[in-house]
Amino acid sequence: MPWFYYLLAIILGYLIGSIPFGYLIGRARGIDITTLGSGRTGGTNVQRSLGMKFGLLSGLLDVFKGIAAVLLAGYLFSDAPGMIPGVAPALAGAFAVVGHNWSIFLGFRGGAGGATGAGALLALNPTAGLILITIFVILMVVLRYASVATLTIGIGSLLVLLLFYLVGWHTPLGHLLFGVIVAAAITWSLRPNIRRLISGNERRINFS
Q1: Does residue 106 lie within any of the structural domains?
Q2: Residue 151: what pLDDT?
Q3: Domain carrying residue 64
Q4: Any domain includes 192
Q5: Residue 176 lies in a domain
């Protein structure tokens, strides 16, 4: 029953992604991060509320959530009978992003999913992950719009994985599931930011 293992991969990824590291870091510092700034639990809002050190810590922990979801699903489910190559890790990584954005532990609130998506992509397809993480960092430093950099991880994951699949670059068809789900989850979460970008009111990151 492959569908059962796919379901387990989805649940595993979602629960790992739901661990609200940004919220926990805020609580450890005596604040509720969901009441400050954008109300999100990702590294950007943590950085704006608590400083660069804690923002980086939150972001790195969110990256590791994505990595852990993909690697665990690959270890537990990829060799099960009837499994399509790459699907279980792809689903786990994608739903880690869903869990991060709509955490069951925070009343289905969370972040935007960029860091978790980057970590999951890095574990799923290291070449694609390194390309998009490099672009993410460049956009953050040059443009200083966290939303633009995060959208790059979402939409870029789908585009790069699709390109790799079409040219036969070690990318099974199952990986495209990851790209579709992550692009949708991140874009949906960033709807307010997209509206502010269009109107010219989006807030930039202050690295100082």
Answers
A1: yes
A2: 96
A3: 2-199
A4: yes
A5: yes
**pTM for the whole thing?**
0.95
pLDDT tens figures, 122-164: 999 999 999 999 999 999 999 999 999 999 999 999 999 999 9
**pLDDT tens sequence across 11-70:** 999 999 999 999 999 999 999 999 998 999 999 999 999 999 999 999 999 999 999 999
- The answer as to whether 208 is a domain residue is no
For residue range 58-97, what is the model confidence (pLDDT) as tens digits? 999 999 999 999 999 999 998 778 888 889 999 999 999 9
Dist. CA 175–CA 161, nearest whole Å = 7
Would you list the DSSP string of the chain? -HHHHHHHHHHHHHHHHH--HHHHHHHHTT--GGGSTT---SHHHHHHHH-HHHHHHHHHHHHHHHHHHHHHHHHHHTTSTTPPTTHHHHHHHHHHHHHHHTBGGGTSB----HHHHHHHHHHH-HHHHHHHHHHHHHHHHHT--HHHHHHHHHHHHHHHHHHHHHTTSS--TTHHHHHHHHHHHHHHHTHHHHHHHHHT-PPPP---
Q: How many domains does the chain have?
A: 1
